[in-house]
Write a structure and sequence with these properties.
It is built from 16 helices and 16 strands. With 461 residues, the protein is α/β, with parallel strands linked by helices. The chain has two domains: 161 residues, Nucleotide cyclase, GGDEF domain (Alpha-Beta Plaits), CATH 3.30.70; 287 residues, Alpha/Beta hydrolase fold, catalytic domain (Rossmann fold). It is elongated, with a radius of gyration of 25 Å.
Length: 461
């Protein structure tokens, strides 16, 4: 028996048993097609060898980590849009080779990684990532350390970013092609706004942290932005003390954020449209709909809240908010950790560490420390409960089941207070989801279905 170091790719078919139970003949034919047209050709190109072929997957050996990662990436790219989905895992380590078969920890760990990957995704161990380096050009995203049954120590893993450079290039193009204009809010504050996409109008309410230009390239928590811009005419703005709007404004109250949303509607020439709001933006959108019922045809509220931290009967909520503010006062500009990082970790705990760090840096682009604190004070005292019965449009309330700041009961209170509201819980802890959150496809489906049910109305010219 020969011993060697090898890179192993483990592949598995998602939902194989269910498919076989429903239609075994069609499933086997589909799998045969996938392996003949995708898996085997890609393995040959990558100089790999399939050493075990099961009904629901395969194990493949490579001589280099770079070839293994590149092949797994290519297979999953080719599989996009296919009715069959695969999971993949990549690891490098000692193996024992007995004729055509391969055994050892590298095989076991690759299989564990594969089982933890998202459908259509691929997880790569840090060992494989370090050995491969950046020579194959496959973008990887840190996912932190995972613990696996039968593996003694946690393994730091990376996910293969199937969006890659093409998606980033498209985001850069969107950012550069925007026509930034300015509206004037009731108190004279200049509000930067823009529109992207074509078709039916959807308006996004201003929230705590935003920057019209950097949102595209530096905010990983905006899975909604490319999607809505692709399907709709999306109108959005930087609220006061954010991004390209006037900063350093002392008058930062909740009512002023509602004024800013009205200024956006007026400047964009929108008489009536559905409004999307996330977190603070959800509260702003709801208040706007209550005060201007003839201008809002529907509300999509993601992880919103009825009461700010200081208005709840939960001292621990306010304590968390104060902890973030206290740390930010002493460590705003620190590289890591800083108050900005605590904010990102509290709001997006199930995003990757890399994206939490990126978002912490995005906050610094979007606003000054002083403006961050001003808006924090505004958020603490929000209370829109008296306004909810005045909302006359249908509302879709999407809320993270394990939200750590604006707990699920806040979303349920929104739904209970709005006369025509539907509540949908999302199995995530992320306040505003990155597009790789497992619940994001569900959220998109709910948003699309909701918008389809709202009748189109003429807009101002």
């Amino acid at each position: 028996m020969e011993r060697a170091i090898a890179a192993i790719v483990s592949l598995d078919v998602v939902g194989y048993s269910q498919r076989m139970a429903r239609n075994p003949d069609a499933t086997l034919e589909d799998l045969r097609t996938v392996f003949d047209t995708v898996v085997r050709p890609r393995v040959r190109i990558g100089n790999g060898r399939i050493f075990k072929l099961m009904g629901d997957g395969a194990l493949v050996r490579f001589g280099t980590a770079s070839d293994a990662i590149a092949t797994a990436h290519a297979i999953q790219k080719d599989m996009q849009g296919n009715a069959i989905q695969l999971r993949a895992g990549v690891h490098v380590g000692d193996v024992s080779i007995n004729q055509e078969d391969v055994f050892g920890d590298a095989v076991n760990v690759a299989a564990r990684l594969q089982s933890a990957a998202q459908p259509g995704g691929c997880l790569v161990s840090r060992v494989a990532q370090q050995i491969a380096g950046g020579s194959n050009g496959v973008p990887l995203k840190s996912e932190g350390a995972l613990t696996f049954k039968g593996v003694l120590a946690p393994i730091e893993v990376f996910s293969v970013d199937l969006r890659g450079k093409d998606a980033q290039a498209q985001r850069v193009k969107h950012a550069k092609s925007q026509n930034i204009r300015f509206a004037t809010s009731r108190d004279g504050t200049r509000i930067a706004w823009t529109e992207t996409g074509q078709g039916r109008t959807v308006v996004k309410a201003p929230n705590w942290v935003q920057h019209l230009e950097s949102d595209w390239t530096h905010n990983p928590m905006n899975g909604w932005l490319p999607h809505l811009s692709h399907h709709y005419r999306l109108i959005r703005c930087d609220g006061r003390n954010n991004g390209l709007s006037d900063r350093g404004i002392a008058d930062v109250t909740f009512d002023r954020f509602v004024d800013d949303l009205k200024a956006l509607f007026d400047a964009a020439g929108v008489s009536r449209a559905p409004v999307f709001g996330a977190s603070l933006g959800a509260a702003v959108a709801a208040a706007f709909a209550a005060r201007y019922p003839d201008r809002v045809s529907g509300l999509i509220l993601l992880s919103g809240f009825v009461h700010g931290l200081a208005k709840r009967n939960r001292p621990q909520d306010l304590a968390l908010g104060h902890a973030m503010m206290d740390l930010s006062r002493d460590a705003w500009d620190a590289s890591y950790p800083s108050g900005r990082h605590l904010f990102a970790q509290a709001f997006f705990p199930e995003s990757s560490p890399q994206d939490q760090d990126l978002y912490a840096r995005f906050i610094q682009m979007a606003m000054t420390h002083e403006d961050f604190l001003r808006i924090s004070d505004c958020v603490d005292v929000v209370d829109i409960e008296p306004l909810l019965p005045d909302i006359r449009c249908p509302a879709l309330i999407l809320h993270a089941d394990r939200e750590r700041v604006h707990f699920k009961d806040q979303g349920q209170k929104l739904a209970a207070g709005i006369p025509d509201a539907r509540f949908v819980g999302l199995d995530t802890a992320n306040n505003n989801m990155p597009d790789y959150d497992p619940e994001w496809p569900k959220a998109l489906h709910e948003i699309e279905s909701f918008l389809q049910d709202i009748p189109d109305l003429p807009e101002m010219s």
